[in-house]
Design a protein that fits this description.
Elements (H helix, E strand, L loop, with lengths): L1 H9 L9 E14 L2 E14 L3 E5 L6 H8 L7 E6 L4 H6 L3 E4 L11 H14 L11 H7 L15 H13 L5 E5 L7 H18 L2 E5 L3 H7 L2 E6 L4 E7 L14 H16 L1
Parallel strand pairs: 3-7, 3-8, 5-6, 6-7
Antiparallel strand pairs: 1-2, 1-4, 8-9
């Protein structure tokens, strides 16, 4: 009421609060097994602002991948609520607001890099769905991820890092509002991984897409994330949400900075407590 009175007296309209891209309220997930139900996630409450790059860390079995799958409507909730841009995960999935990049690029081996990128557009047309095309063409997206000139290459002609670049371009072709990435660089060598870390940050800055990124690597989590969500295990639950005090424009040499080292040390302490 006080804010409303100020607005009436001065004509000043306070800015609207940031919109939540993903909102989780006491979210729980359980799986039935031969030995009875197993609770994978319990009482996860979290709001992720639109445009955020959130990295997710935690020990094996804490539900990192399960959390992404709930948000993308691949796994049902046992309790609580989840919304994606104010809609249910199912509505967001059907509206093609969400794209997923897995650890395996999962390209169709008989289609070229360009044909793989075009696949979501073709599937949407066949199903009669409304398609939100990226402002960039599939060719431009391949160029954006550093594959200009490799449009006609088949997956077996590309390195692992190149295949992941194709998968990222494919995920962006329908202009998702939310990009979910489940250890996409986990199987790559360190040098390739570093290059793709810089690449995905550049893409995030160019597109403004909200990104949720699961990783087992503390340095990767700190380098990429504006915030790092640490999950504890058995059952999966929020341990802490850690702010990363690095600028948006990041270079690999920042991993030697005092802020990077301090944040990585804090995350290691939390991980040891999980």
């Amino acid at each position: 009421m006080e804010a409303l009175k100020v607005a009436e007296d001065t004509g000043f309209i306070p800015p609207a609060p940031p919109r939540a891209a993903v909102s989780l309220d006491r979210l729980s997930v359980a799986f039935d097994t031969a030995n009875g139900p197993i609770v994978a996630l319990r009482d996860i409450t979290l709001d992720i602002e639109d445009g955020t790059f959130l990295t997710i860390l935690g020990p094996s079995g804490c539900g990192k991948s399960t959390l992404l799958r709930v948000v993308s409507d691949l796994v049902p909730m046992a309790g609580g609520n989840a919304t994606v841009f104010g809609k249910s995960p199912e509505q967001a999935r059907r509206g093609r607001d969400i794209a997923f990049v897995f650890q395996d690029a999962a390209l169709l081996p008989w289609r070229t890099a360009l044909e793989n990128v075009k696949l979501p557009l073709e599937m949407g047309i066949r199903r009669g769905q409304e398609i939100h095309r990226s402002e960039r063409s599939p060719e431009e997206l391949l160029a954006m991820v550093g594959l200009k000139g490799r449009e006609n290459a088949l997956p077996h002609e590309l390195s692992g890092g190149m295949r992941q670049r194709v998968a990222i371009a494919r995920a962006l072709v329908c202009k998702p509002k939310l990009l979910l990435m489940d250890e996409p660089f986990g199987a790559l060598d360190e040098i390739t991984r570093d290059r793709l870390n810089e690449e995905i940050l550049r893409i995030w800055q160019e597109t403004g897409t909200t990104i949720l990124f699961v990783t087992h690597s503390i340095p990767e989590a700190v380098f990429l994330g504006q915030k790092v969500l640490m999950l504890a295990a058995h059952p999966g639950r929020v341990k802490e949400l850690v702010d990363v005090g690095l600028p948006r424009d990041r270079k690999l040499k920042m991993r030697e900075s005092a802020e990077f080292v301090r944040t990585a040390a804090r995350l290691r302490e939390l991980l040891e407590e999980c």
